[in-house]
Amino acid sequence: MVKTILSQVKEYKRVSILTPVCMLGEVIMEMIIPLLMASIIDKGVSAGDIHHIKVTGLIMLFMAAISLTLGILSARFGAQASAGLAKNLRQAMFEKVQTFSFSNLDKFSTSSLITRLTTDVTNVQNAYMMILRMCTRAPATMLIAMVLSFAINGRLASVYLVAVVVLGLLLFLIMSKAMRYFKEVFQKYDDLNASVQENISGIRVVKAYVREPFETSKFHKAAQNIYDRFLSAEKILSWNMPLMNFTVYASILLISWLGATFIVAGSLTTGELMNLLTYCMSILMSLMMLSMIFVMVSMSTASAQRICEVLDEQPDLTNPEHPVFDIPDGSVEFRHVDFAYRKDAEKPVLRDIDLKVTSGETIGIIGGTGSAKTSLVNLISRLYDVTAGQVLVGGRDVREYDLETLRNEVSVVLQKNVLFSGTILENLRWGDEHATLAECQRACRLACADEFIEKMPDGYDTYIEQGGTNVSGGQRQRLCIARALLKKPKVLILDDSTSAVDTATDAKIRRAFAQEIPDTTKFIIAQRVSSVQDADRILVMDEGQISGFGTHEELLQTNAIYQEVYESQTNGGGDFDEGGEA
After folding, report:
1. Residue 92: exposed, middle, or buried by beta-carbon count in 10 A (0-12, 13-18, 19+)?
2. What pLDDT digit, counting tens, does each position of 306-329 carry?
3. Whose CB among 24, 52, 107, 162 lies 3.0–4.6 Å from 44's, allowing a Cys bridge?
Protein backbone atom coordinates (compact mmCIF):
# COMPACT_ATOMS: atom_id res chain seq x y z
CA MET A 1 0.00 0.00 0.00
CA VAL A 2 2.75 2.47 0.99
CA LYS A 3 4.65 1.68 -2.20
CA THR A 4 1.53 2.29 -4.32
CA ILE A 5 0.84 5.67 -2.70
CA LEU A 6 4.46 6.84 -2.76
CA SER A 7 4.77 5.87 -6.44
CA GLN A 8 2.58 8.90 -7.15
CA VAL A 9 4.99 11.38 -5.55
CA LYS A 10 6.84 11.48 -8.91
CA GLU A 11 8.00 15.02 -9.74
CA TYR A 12 7.52 16.10 -6.10
CA LYS A 13 10.34 13.92 -4.70
CA ARG A 14 12.70 16.89 -4.35
CA VAL A 15 10.32 18.99 -2.24
CA SER A 16 9.35 15.86 -0.30
CA ILE A 17 12.99 15.46 0.73
CA LEU A 18 13.58 19.18 1.38
CA THR A 19 10.55 19.42 3.71
CA PRO A 20 11.92 17.19 6.52
CA VAL A 21 15.48 18.51 5.98
CA CYS A 22 14.31 22.10 6.56
CA MET A 23 12.16 20.98 9.48
CA LEU A 24 15.13 19.21 11.10
CA GLY A 25 17.20 22.38 10.72
CA GLU A 26 14.42 24.41 12.36
CA VAL A 27 14.29 22.00 15.32
CA ILE A 28 18.08 22.15 15.82
CA MET A 29 17.96 25.96 15.91
CA GLU A 30 15.07 25.89 18.39
CA MET A 31 16.92 23.49 20.68
CA ILE A 32 20.08 25.65 20.67
CA ILE A 33 18.19 28.82 21.69
CA PRO A 34 17.39 27.57 25.29
CA LEU A 35 21.10 26.83 25.78
CA LEU A 36 21.90 30.40 24.80
CA MET A 37 19.19 31.69 27.13
CA ALA A 38 20.70 29.69 30.01
CA SER A 39 24.08 31.21 29.17
CA ILE A 40 22.62 34.74 29.33
CA ILE A 41 21.11 34.03 32.76
CA ASP A 42 24.11 32.25 34.26
CA LYS A 43 27.02 34.13 32.66
CA GLY A 44 25.44 37.45 31.78
CA VAL A 45 22.71 38.42 34.24
CA SER A 46 24.17 36.67 37.30
CA ALA A 47 27.71 37.88 36.55
CA GLY A 48 26.63 41.37 35.36
CA ASP A 49 28.39 40.87 32.01
CA ILE A 50 26.55 43.18 29.59
CA HIS A 51 28.87 42.32 26.69
CA HIS A 52 28.06 38.62 27.03
CA ILE A 53 24.33 39.41 27.12
CA LYS A 54 24.57 41.50 23.93
CA VAL A 55 26.69 39.02 21.97
CA THR A 56 24.64 36.00 23.04
CA GLY A 57 21.41 37.92 22.35
CA LEU A 58 22.54 38.69 18.78
CA ILE A 59 23.40 35.03 18.26
CA MET A 60 19.90 34.10 19.51
CA LEU A 61 18.34 36.54 17.04
CA PHE A 62 20.40 35.03 14.22
CA MET A 63 19.35 31.49 15.27
CA ALA A 64 15.70 32.56 15.48
CA ALA A 65 15.90 34.09 11.98
CA ILE A 66 17.37 30.88 10.58
CA SER A 67 14.69 28.84 12.38
CA LEU A 68 11.94 31.07 11.00
CA THR A 69 13.30 30.84 7.45
CA LEU A 70 13.64 27.06 7.61
CA GLY A 71 10.13 26.78 9.07
CA ILE A 72 8.66 28.84 6.21
CA LEU A 73 10.54 26.80 3.61
CA SER A 74 9.45 23.54 5.25
CA ALA A 75 5.80 24.65 5.19
CA ARG A 76 6.07 25.74 1.57
CA PHE A 77 7.81 22.57 0.38
CA GLY A 78 5.42 20.41 2.41
CA ALA A 79 2.39 22.10 0.85
CA GLN A 80 3.82 21.56 -2.64
CA ALA A 81 4.61 17.91 -1.94
CA SER A 82 1.27 17.02 -0.34
CA ALA A 83 -0.84 18.94 -2.87
CA GLY A 84 1.21 17.40 -5.67
CA LEU A 85 0.70 13.90 -4.29
CA ALA A 86 -3.06 14.53 -4.06
CA LYS A 87 -3.12 15.81 -7.65
CA ASN A 88 -1.23 12.76 -8.92
CA LEU A 89 -3.40 10.34 -6.93
CA ARG A 90 -6.59 11.82 -8.34
CA GLN A 91 -5.15 11.81 -11.85
CA ALA A 92 -3.95 8.21 -11.50
CA MET A 93 -7.30 7.04 -10.11
CA PHE A 94 -9.28 8.84 -12.80
CA GLU A 95 -7.07 7.44 -15.57
CA LYS A 96 -7.33 3.96 -14.05
CA VAL A 97 -11.13 4.16 -13.96
CA GLN A 98 -11.08 5.03 -17.67
CA THR A 99 -9.38 1.68 -18.35
CA PHE A 100 -11.94 -0.34 -16.40
CA SER A 101 -14.32 -2.65 -18.16
CA PHE A 102 -17.97 -2.74 -17.15
CA SER A 103 -17.22 -5.71 -14.90
CA ASN A 104 -14.50 -3.71 -13.10
CA LEU A 105 -16.87 -0.79 -12.62
CA ASP A 106 -19.48 -3.14 -11.18
CA LYS A 107 -17.18 -3.63 -8.16
CA PHE A 108 -17.30 0.06 -7.20
CA SER A 109 -20.39 2.19 -6.78
CA THR A 110 -20.34 5.68 -8.27
CA SER A 111 -20.64 7.26 -4.82
CA SER A 112 -17.72 5.16 -3.56
CA LEU A 113 -15.47 6.31 -6.42
CA ILE A 114 -16.40 9.94 -5.76
CA THR A 115 -15.56 9.55 -2.06
CA ARG A 116 -12.22 7.96 -2.91
CA LEU A 117 -11.34 10.74 -5.37
CA THR A 118 -12.30 13.51 -2.93
CA THR A 119 -12.46 12.77 0.81
CA ASP A 120 -10.01 9.85 0.82
CA VAL A 121 -7.39 11.68 -1.25
CA THR A 122 -7.74 14.76 0.98
CA ASN A 123 -7.10 12.60 4.06
CA VAL A 124 -3.97 11.13 2.48
CA GLN A 125 -2.84 14.63 1.45
CA ASN A 126 -3.19 15.93 5.02
CA ALA A 127 -1.45 12.86 6.43
CA TYR A 128 1.44 13.19 3.97
CA MET A 129 1.94 16.83 4.94
CA MET A 130 1.91 15.84 8.61
CA ILE A 131 4.33 12.96 8.06
CA LEU A 132 6.82 15.15 6.18
CA ARG A 133 6.75 17.93 8.77
CA MET A 134 5.40 16.79 12.12
CA CYS A 135 6.80 13.25 11.93
CA THR A 136 10.21 14.89 11.55
CA ARG A 137 9.68 17.65 14.09
CA ALA A 138 8.19 15.65 16.96
CA PRO A 139 10.71 12.75 17.15
CA ALA A 140 13.65 15.07 16.47
CA THR A 141 12.52 17.50 19.17
CA MET A 142 11.99 14.70 21.68
CA LEU A 143 15.34 13.09 20.96
CA ILE A 144 17.44 16.28 21.00
CA ALA A 145 15.64 17.71 24.03
CA MET A 146 16.02 14.43 25.93
CA VAL A 147 19.75 14.16 25.15
CA LEU A 148 20.38 17.78 26.17
CA SER A 149 18.29 17.35 29.34
CA PHE A 150 20.29 14.31 30.43
CA ALA A 151 23.47 16.23 29.63
CA ILE A 152 22.35 19.01 31.99
CA ASN A 153 21.05 16.84 34.86
CA GLY A 154 20.32 13.12 34.51
CA ARG A 155 18.21 12.85 37.68
CA LEU A 156 15.81 15.62 36.69
CA ALA A 157 15.69 14.41 33.07
CA SER A 158 14.50 10.99 34.30
CA VAL A 159 11.23 12.74 35.26
CA TYR A 160 10.66 13.37 31.54
CA LEU A 161 11.41 9.78 30.72
CA VAL A 162 8.82 8.45 33.17
CA ALA A 163 6.25 11.03 31.98
CA VAL A 164 6.85 10.14 28.32
CA VAL A 165 6.44 6.41 28.93
CA VAL A 166 3.26 6.81 31.02
CA LEU A 167 1.67 9.36 28.69
CA GLY A 168 2.71 7.34 25.62
CA LEU A 169 0.95 4.21 26.91
CA LEU A 170 -2.23 6.15 27.79
CA LEU A 171 -2.34 7.88 24.40
CA PHE A 172 -1.79 4.58 22.59
CA LEU A 173 -4.80 3.06 24.40
CA ILE A 174 -6.93 6.10 23.52
CA MET A 175 -5.89 6.08 19.87
CA SER A 176 -6.42 2.35 19.37
CA LYS A 177 -10.00 2.63 20.66
CA ALA A 178 -10.77 5.72 18.58
CA MET A 179 -9.46 4.26 15.33
CA ARG A 180 -12.19 1.62 15.14
CA TYR A 181 -14.75 4.39 14.70
CA PHE A 182 -12.67 6.34 12.18
CA LYS A 183 -12.39 3.28 9.94
CA GLU A 184 -16.20 2.92 9.93
CA VAL A 185 -16.71 6.58 9.00
CA PHE A 186 -15.45 6.27 5.42
CA GLN A 187 -17.87 3.47 4.58
CA LYS A 188 -20.66 5.73 5.82
CA TYR A 189 -19.39 8.55 3.57
CA ASP A 190 -20.17 6.29 0.60
CA ASP A 191 -23.78 5.95 1.81
CA LEU A 192 -24.06 9.72 2.26
CA ASN A 193 -22.71 10.46 -1.23
CA ALA A 194 -25.00 7.81 -2.71
CA SER A 195 -28.00 9.45 -1.06
CA VAL A 196 -27.06 12.93 -2.38
CA GLN A 197 -26.25 11.68 -5.89
CA GLU A 198 -29.43 9.65 -6.18
CA ASN A 199 -31.58 12.50 -4.90
CA ILE A 200 -30.12 15.17 -7.17
CA SER A 201 -30.11 13.01 -10.31
CA GLY A 202 -33.70 11.95 -9.66
CA ILE A 203 -35.02 15.22 -8.23
CA ARG A 204 -37.82 15.44 -10.80
CA VAL A 205 -39.14 12.05 -9.79
CA VAL A 206 -38.78 12.96 -6.10
CA LYS A 207 -40.90 16.07 -6.61
CA ALA A 208 -43.40 14.31 -8.87
CA TYR A 209 -44.11 11.72 -6.17
CA VAL A 210 -43.81 14.21 -3.28
CA ARG A 211 -41.07 12.12 -1.68
CA GLU A 212 -39.04 15.02 -0.29
CA PRO A 213 -39.74 14.03 3.36
CA PHE A 214 -38.62 10.44 2.66
CA GLU A 215 -35.42 11.58 0.91
CA THR A 216 -34.71 14.07 3.69
CA SER A 217 -35.15 11.31 6.25
CA LYS A 218 -32.79 9.00 4.30
CA PHE A 219 -30.15 11.72 4.08
CA HIS A 220 -30.56 12.53 7.78
CA LYS A 221 -30.00 8.88 8.64
CA ALA A 222 -26.79 8.74 6.57
CA ALA A 223 -25.53 12.02 8.07
CA GLN A 224 -26.47 10.87 11.57
CA ASN A 225 -24.44 7.66 11.13
CA ILE A 226 -21.33 9.72 10.32
CA TYR A 227 -22.06 12.07 13.23
CA ASP A 228 -22.48 9.18 15.68
CA ARG A 229 -19.18 7.58 14.72
CA PHE A 230 -17.24 10.81 14.76
CA LEU A 231 -18.79 11.68 18.12
CA SER A 232 -17.84 8.28 19.53
CA ALA A 233 -14.27 8.76 18.36
CA GLU A 234 -14.08 12.32 19.66
CA LYS A 235 -15.42 11.28 23.08
CA ILE A 236 -12.45 8.98 23.40
CA LEU A 237 -10.01 11.54 22.00
CA SER A 238 -11.30 14.15 24.47
CA TRP A 239 -9.14 12.43 27.09
CA ASN A 240 -6.01 13.46 25.19
CA MET A 241 -5.78 17.08 26.33
CA PRO A 242 -6.63 16.57 30.03
CA LEU A 243 -4.08 13.77 30.29
CA MET A 244 -1.54 15.86 28.44
CA ASN A 245 -2.09 18.91 30.65
CA PHE A 246 -1.98 16.84 33.81
CA THR A 247 1.31 15.22 32.79
CA VAL A 248 2.86 18.52 31.70
CA TYR A 249 1.94 20.44 34.83
CA ALA A 250 2.84 17.53 37.09
CA SER A 251 6.26 17.32 35.41
CA ILE A 252 6.79 21.09 35.69
CA LEU A 253 5.88 21.10 39.39
CA LEU A 254 8.10 18.12 40.12
CA ILE A 255 11.05 19.53 38.16
CA SER A 256 10.58 22.98 39.77
CA TRP A 257 10.54 21.49 43.27
CA LEU A 258 13.48 19.16 42.66
CA GLY A 259 15.33 21.83 40.69
CA ALA A 260 14.99 24.37 43.52
CA THR A 261 16.47 21.78 45.88
CA PHE A 262 19.39 21.19 43.52
CA ILE A 263 19.97 24.95 43.11
CA VAL A 264 20.13 25.38 46.87
CA ALA A 265 22.53 22.44 47.05
CA GLY A 266 24.64 24.07 44.31
CA SER A 267 24.39 21.20 41.82
CA LEU A 268 22.17 23.15 39.39
CA THR A 269 22.12 26.72 38.11
CA THR A 270 19.04 28.88 37.52
CA GLY A 271 19.73 28.96 33.79
CA GLU A 272 19.95 25.18 33.64
CA LEU A 273 16.60 24.88 35.46
CA MET A 274 15.03 27.25 32.91
CA ASN A 275 16.56 25.08 30.20
CA LEU A 276 15.10 21.91 31.67
CA LEU A 277 11.62 23.45 31.97
CA THR A 278 11.77 24.55 28.33
CA TYR A 279 12.82 21.08 27.20
CA CYS A 280 10.09 19.56 29.38
CA MET A 281 7.44 21.47 27.48
CA SER A 282 9.09 20.61 24.15
CA ILE A 283 9.22 16.88 24.93
CA LEU A 284 5.67 16.57 26.18
CA MET A 285 4.22 18.75 23.42
CA SER A 286 6.06 16.61 20.89
CA LEU A 287 4.43 13.56 22.42
CA MET A 288 0.99 15.17 22.04
CA MET A 289 1.92 16.04 18.47
CA LEU A 290 2.79 12.40 17.83
CA SER A 291 -0.61 11.34 19.16
CA MET A 292 -2.32 13.67 16.68
CA ILE A 293 -0.10 12.32 13.91
CA PHE A 294 -1.14 8.82 14.92
CA VAL A 295 -4.81 9.77 14.61
CA MET A 296 -4.32 11.39 11.20
CA VAL A 297 -2.16 8.58 9.84
CA SER A 298 -4.59 5.95 11.12
CA MET A 299 -7.50 7.77 9.49
CA SER A 300 -5.56 8.13 6.27
CA THR A 301 -4.57 4.45 6.32
CA ALA A 302 -8.22 3.51 5.80
CA SER A 303 -8.40 6.08 3.00
CA ALA A 304 -5.13 4.90 1.46
CA GLN A 305 -6.39 1.32 1.40
CA ARG A 306 -9.52 2.43 -0.47
CA ILE A 307 -7.40 4.42 -2.96
CA CYS A 308 -5.11 1.43 -3.52
CA GLU A 309 -8.13 -0.78 -4.22
CA VAL A 310 -8.79 1.39 -7.27
CA LEU A 311 -5.14 1.77 -8.33
CA ASP A 312 -4.41 -1.96 -7.88
CA GLU A 313 -7.56 -3.09 -9.68
CA GLN A 314 -6.52 -4.77 -12.91
CA PRO A 315 -8.74 -4.15 -15.95
CA ASP A 316 -10.48 -7.36 -17.04
CA LEU A 317 -10.18 -6.30 -20.67
CA THR A 318 -6.74 -5.58 -22.09
CA ASN A 319 -5.17 -5.37 -25.52
CA PRO A 320 -3.54 -8.55 -26.85
CA GLU A 321 0.24 -8.61 -27.18
CA HIS A 322 0.07 -8.01 -30.94
CA PRO A 323 -3.31 -6.33 -31.58
CA VAL A 324 -4.97 -6.10 -34.98
CA PHE A 325 -5.73 -2.53 -36.08
CA ASP A 326 -7.82 -3.20 -39.17
CA ILE A 327 -11.41 -4.48 -39.25
CA PRO A 328 -12.19 -5.51 -42.83
CA ASP A 329 -16.00 -5.46 -42.67
CA GLY A 330 -19.00 -5.44 -40.35
CA SER A 331 -19.77 -9.17 -40.33
CA VAL A 332 -20.54 -10.54 -36.85
CA GLU A 333 -20.52 -14.13 -35.70
CA PHE A 334 -21.26 -15.77 -32.35
CA ARG A 335 -19.81 -19.25 -31.97
CA HIS A 336 -21.41 -21.19 -29.10
CA VAL A 337 -21.09 -18.26 -26.72
CA ASP A 338 -21.75 -18.49 -22.99
CA PHE A 339 -21.55 -15.40 -20.79
CA ALA A 340 -21.87 -14.65 -17.08
CA TYR A 341 -21.22 -11.34 -15.30
CA ARG A 342 -19.46 -13.11 -12.43
CA LYS A 343 -17.18 -16.12 -12.54
CA ASP A 344 -18.96 -17.68 -9.58
CA ALA A 345 -22.45 -17.25 -11.09
CA GLU A 346 -24.67 -20.32 -10.78
CA LYS A 347 -25.77 -20.13 -14.40
CA PRO A 348 -24.71 -17.98 -17.37
CA VAL A 349 -26.72 -15.01 -18.60
CA LEU A 350 -26.25 -16.16 -22.22
CA ARG A 351 -26.19 -19.84 -23.14
CA ASP A 352 -24.92 -21.41 -26.37
CA ILE A 353 -25.47 -18.39 -28.65
CA ASP A 354 -24.66 -19.43 -32.20
CA LEU A 355 -25.48 -17.10 -35.12
CA LYS A 356 -23.89 -15.44 -38.12
CA VAL A 357 -24.61 -11.97 -39.51
CA THR A 358 -23.22 -10.78 -42.83
CA SER A 359 -21.83 -7.29 -43.33
CA GLY A 360 -24.50 -4.65 -44.06
CA GLU A 361 -27.41 -6.69 -42.64
CA THR A 362 -29.98 -5.09 -40.36
CA ILE A 363 -30.77 -7.36 -37.42
CA GLY A 364 -33.69 -6.67 -35.13
CA ILE A 365 -33.52 -8.05 -31.59
CA ILE A 366 -36.64 -8.50 -29.53
CA GLY A 367 -37.44 -10.28 -26.29
CA GLY A 368 -38.85 -9.84 -22.83
CA THR A 369 -37.23 -7.91 -19.99
CA GLY A 370 -34.24 -9.85 -18.69
CA SER A 371 -33.85 -11.94 -21.84
CA ALA A 372 -30.19 -10.73 -22.14
CA LYS A 373 -30.59 -8.64 -25.30
CA THR A 374 -28.23 -5.93 -24.02
CA SER A 375 -25.75 -8.51 -22.69
CA LEU A 376 -25.61 -10.03 -26.19
CA VAL A 377 -24.71 -6.81 -28.04
CA ASN A 378 -22.27 -5.69 -25.31
CA LEU A 379 -20.06 -8.62 -26.32
CA ILE A 380 -19.72 -7.32 -29.90
CA SER A 381 -17.85 -4.16 -28.85
CA ARG A 382 -16.10 -6.15 -26.11
CA LEU A 383 -17.55 -4.21 -23.23
CA TYR A 384 -17.45 -7.63 -21.57
CA ASP A 385 -15.57 -10.80 -22.50
CA VAL A 386 -17.31 -14.09 -23.20
CA THR A 387 -17.15 -16.85 -20.60
CA ALA A 388 -16.98 -19.51 -23.31
CA GLY A 389 -17.01 -19.52 -27.11
CA GLN A 390 -16.06 -16.72 -29.49
CA VAL A 391 -17.45 -13.45 -30.82
CA LEU A 392 -16.06 -12.52 -34.24
CA VAL A 393 -16.20 -9.17 -36.03
CA GLY A 394 -14.85 -8.97 -39.56
CA GLY A 395 -13.91 -12.64 -39.35
CA ARG A 396 -11.63 -12.24 -36.29
CA ASP A 397 -12.14 -12.85 -32.59
CA VAL A 398 -12.82 -9.48 -30.92
CA ARG A 399 -10.09 -10.33 -28.38
CA GLU A 400 -7.51 -10.07 -31.18
CA TYR A 401 -8.33 -6.43 -31.96
CA ASP A 402 -6.95 -3.25 -30.45
CA LEU A 403 -9.74 -2.12 -28.10
CA GLU A 404 -9.84 1.46 -29.36
CA THR A 405 -9.97 0.30 -32.98
CA LEU A 406 -12.78 -2.16 -32.24
CA ARG A 407 -14.91 0.37 -30.35
CA ASN A 408 -14.43 2.99 -33.06
CA GLU A 409 -15.72 0.54 -35.66
CA VAL A 410 -18.49 -0.91 -33.47
CA SER A 411 -20.55 2.09 -32.41
CA VAL A 412 -23.02 1.58 -29.57
CA VAL A 413 -25.93 3.76 -28.54
CA LEU A 414 -26.44 2.43 -25.03
CA GLN A 415 -29.79 1.83 -23.40
CA LYS A 416 -29.18 4.76 -21.04
CA ASN A 417 -28.69 7.84 -23.20
CA VAL A 418 -26.15 10.28 -21.75
CA LEU A 419 -25.35 13.78 -22.96
CA PHE A 420 -22.68 15.96 -21.39
CA SER A 421 -22.70 19.63 -20.50
CA GLY A 422 -21.74 21.67 -23.56
CA THR A 423 -23.23 22.67 -26.89
CA ILE A 424 -25.02 20.27 -29.22
CA LEU A 425 -22.05 20.47 -31.58
CA GLU A 426 -19.62 19.58 -28.77
CA ASN A 427 -21.76 16.60 -27.82
CA LEU A 428 -21.96 15.40 -31.41
CA ARG A 429 -18.18 15.59 -31.78
CA TRP A 430 -17.79 12.92 -29.11
CA GLY A 431 -18.32 10.65 -32.11
CA ASP A 432 -15.59 12.37 -34.13
CA GLU A 433 -13.74 15.30 -32.59
CA HIS A 434 -12.63 16.46 -36.06
CA ALA A 435 -16.11 16.31 -37.65
CA THR A 436 -17.08 19.36 -39.70
CA LEU A 437 -20.37 21.16 -39.23
CA ALA A 438 -21.62 19.63 -42.49
CA GLU A 439 -20.81 16.11 -41.26
CA CYS A 440 -22.61 16.79 -37.98
CA GLN A 441 -25.65 18.10 -39.87
CA ARG A 442 -25.72 14.99 -42.07
CA ALA A 443 -25.58 12.68 -39.03
CA CYS A 444 -28.42 14.65 -37.44
CA ARG A 445 -30.51 14.33 -40.62
CA LEU A 446 -30.03 10.54 -40.54
CA ALA A 447 -31.06 10.47 -36.88
CA CYS A 448 -33.97 12.89 -37.54
CA ALA A 449 -32.44 15.26 -34.98
CA ASP A 450 -32.14 18.17 -37.41
CA GLU A 451 -35.90 18.78 -37.10
CA PHE A 452 -35.74 20.09 -33.52
CA ILE A 453 -32.17 21.48 -33.61
CA GLU A 454 -33.02 23.94 -36.36
CA LYS A 455 -36.00 25.19 -34.33
CA MET A 456 -33.76 26.09 -31.40
CA PRO A 457 -32.65 29.77 -31.21
CA ASP A 458 -28.94 28.89 -31.18
CA GLY A 459 -29.18 25.83 -33.42
CA TYR A 460 -26.13 23.61 -33.10
CA ASP A 461 -24.64 26.03 -30.55
CA THR A 462 -27.53 25.40 -28.13
CA TYR A 463 -26.15 24.59 -24.68
CA ILE A 464 -27.03 21.18 -23.27
CA GLU A 465 -27.24 20.91 -19.50
CA GLN A 466 -25.47 18.07 -17.70
CA GLY A 467 -27.26 14.82 -18.48
CA GLY A 468 -29.30 16.52 -21.23
CA THR A 469 -31.98 17.66 -18.80
CA ASN A 470 -33.07 20.56 -21.03
CA VAL A 471 -34.08 18.33 -23.97
CA SER A 472 -36.77 15.65 -24.13
CA GLY A 473 -36.12 11.92 -23.97
CA GLY A 474 -36.75 11.50 -27.70
CA GLN A 475 -34.48 14.41 -28.58
CA ARG A 476 -31.78 13.01 -26.34
CA GLN A 477 -32.03 9.62 -28.07
CA ARG A 478 -31.74 11.15 -31.53
CA LEU A 479 -28.70 13.21 -30.57
CA CYS A 480 -27.03 10.06 -29.20
CA ILE A 481 -27.76 8.20 -32.45
CA ALA A 482 -26.30 11.08 -34.48
CA ARG A 483 -23.23 11.07 -32.24
CA ALA A 484 -22.73 7.34 -32.88
CA LEU A 485 -23.16 7.79 -36.65
CA LEU A 486 -20.33 10.34 -36.74
CA LYS A 487 -17.91 7.52 -35.92
CA LYS A 488 -18.76 6.07 -39.36
CA PRO A 489 -18.82 2.58 -37.86
CA LYS A 490 -18.86 -0.76 -39.63
CA VAL A 491 -21.29 -2.02 -36.97
CA LEU A 492 -24.00 0.14 -35.38
CA ILE A 493 -25.84 -1.07 -32.28
CA LEU A 494 -29.01 0.70 -31.14
CA ASP A 495 -29.93 -0.63 -27.71
CA ASP A 496 -33.60 0.34 -27.37
CA SER A 497 -32.48 3.76 -28.56
CA THR A 498 -35.71 4.82 -30.25
CA SER A 499 -38.10 3.88 -27.44
CA ALA A 500 -38.82 7.55 -26.66
CA VAL A 501 -39.52 8.64 -30.25
CA ASP A 502 -42.83 8.22 -32.03
CA THR A 503 -43.28 5.45 -34.60
CA ALA A 504 -43.28 7.89 -37.53
CA THR A 505 -39.86 9.27 -36.55
CA ASP A 506 -38.66 5.74 -35.79
CA ALA A 507 -39.62 4.72 -39.32
CA LYS A 508 -37.81 7.76 -40.80
CA ILE A 509 -34.64 6.85 -38.91
CA ARG A 510 -34.75 3.25 -40.14
CA ARG A 511 -35.43 4.38 -43.68
CA ALA A 512 -32.49 6.81 -43.57
CA PHE A 513 -30.22 4.04 -42.29
CA ALA A 514 -31.21 1.72 -45.12
CA GLN A 515 -30.59 4.39 -47.75
CA GLU A 516 -27.54 6.23 -46.38
CA ILE A 517 -25.48 3.59 -44.58
CA PRO A 518 -26.30 0.34 -46.41
CA ASP A 519 -22.85 -1.17 -45.79
CA THR A 520 -23.06 -0.73 -42.02
CA THR A 521 -24.25 -3.76 -40.06
CA LYS A 522 -27.07 -2.63 -37.80
CA PHE A 523 -28.39 -4.27 -34.62
CA ILE A 524 -31.63 -2.73 -33.41
CA ILE A 525 -32.92 -3.76 -29.98
CA ALA A 526 -36.55 -2.75 -29.54
CA GLN A 527 -39.70 -3.50 -27.61
CA ARG A 528 -41.96 -2.61 -30.55
CA VAL A 529 -42.41 -5.06 -33.39
CA SER A 530 -42.88 -2.09 -35.74
CA SER A 531 -39.28 -1.05 -35.03
CA VAL A 532 -37.81 -4.37 -36.20
CA GLN A 533 -40.28 -5.94 -38.62
CA ASP A 534 -38.55 -4.41 -41.68
CA ALA A 535 -35.14 -5.72 -40.59
CA ASP A 536 -33.40 -8.29 -42.79
CA ARG A 537 -33.69 -10.79 -39.95
CA ILE A 538 -35.03 -10.70 -36.41
CA LEU A 539 -33.48 -12.38 -33.39
CA VAL A 540 -35.92 -13.43 -30.65
CA MET A 541 -34.28 -13.83 -27.22
CA ASP A 542 -35.75 -15.76 -24.31
CA GLU A 543 -33.98 -16.21 -20.97
CA GLY A 544 -30.51 -15.88 -22.45
CA GLN A 545 -31.08 -18.19 -25.39
CA ILE A 546 -32.06 -17.80 -29.02
CA SER A 547 -35.73 -18.61 -29.37
CA GLY A 548 -35.97 -17.73 -33.06
CA PHE A 549 -33.98 -16.13 -35.88
CA GLY A 550 -35.51 -15.22 -39.22
CA THR A 551 -37.57 -12.69 -41.15
CA HIS A 552 -40.74 -11.11 -39.83
CA GLU A 553 -42.88 -13.43 -41.94
CA GLU A 554 -40.93 -16.55 -40.95
CA LEU A 555 -41.18 -15.80 -37.24
CA LEU A 556 -44.91 -15.16 -37.47
CA GLN A 557 -45.21 -18.69 -38.77
CA THR A 558 -42.71 -20.48 -36.55
CA ASN A 559 -42.08 -18.61 -33.28
CA ALA A 560 -44.69 -18.54 -30.51
CA ILE A 561 -43.03 -15.70 -28.55
CA TYR A 562 -42.85 -13.45 -31.61
CA GLN A 563 -46.44 -14.27 -32.50
CA GLU A 564 -47.60 -13.35 -29.01
CA VAL A 565 -45.72 -10.02 -28.98
CA TYR A 566 -46.97 -9.15 -32.47
CA GLU A 567 -50.61 -9.95 -31.66
CA SER A 568 -50.54 -8.08 -28.34
CA GLN A 569 -49.29 -4.95 -30.10
CA THR A 570 -51.37 -5.08 -33.26
CA ASN A 571 -54.68 -6.22 -31.76
CA GLY A 572 -54.61 -3.21 -29.50
CA GLY A 573 -54.86 -0.93 -32.52
CA GLY A 574 -51.15 -0.31 -33.11
CA ASP A 575 -48.72 1.94 -31.28
CA PHE A 576 -50.37 4.77 -29.41
CA ASP A 577 -47.93 7.40 -30.63
CA GLU A 578 -48.02 6.61 -34.35
CA GLY A 579 -47.73 9.83 -36.26
CA GLY A 580 -47.03 11.78 -33.08
CA GLU A 581 -43.91 13.52 -32.01
CA ALA A 582 -41.58 13.03 -29.05
Report:
1. middle
2. 899 899 988 888 888 899 999 999
3. 52
